[in-house]
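New to this. Look over this protein:
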Amino acid sequence: MTTDIKLIQTDNVYDIVFDDNGDIANGDFLDSILIYALFGEKRASESEVPIASMRRGWIGNEGKTFENGSKLWLFEQSNITRAVLNDIQSTALDALTYLIDDGYAVDIEASAVLQNNQVVLNILIYITQSKVETRFFVLWQNTGSN
């Protein structure tokens, strides 16, 4: 894998890491791209969010045929059910499919679970048939299920 900027999560916000010399620290390309793909916001459609000013989305996606990011943000206020967890998995896979299309991975799996009142997203990225990268993200904390 190639290198990219190193990101760190503090208080649910990702920020760039600087090394001791004040230069931007190097990180793993995969970590950066997962954060970007999953937590960058795709704009919701009219059927998903009827009020235009609340559809969010990244302005850099405007006018493009392919939008970066995901719609995971749509689930922030959802009651957590198995169906919602399945939708979170599907949304995450949709956001990461371009890694396969662009040749960075041969397959990707995602699973969302409710664990200790947290929604946890587990990602398996098959770089090759024999090399698998595993990442997990806590999407929401202090949540329960119906």
Strands lie at 3-5, 7-10, 13-16, 26-28, 107-115, 118-126, 132-141. DSSP finds two helices and seven strands in the chain. The CA atoms of residues 117 and 144 lie 5 Å apart. The chain has one domain: 3-141.
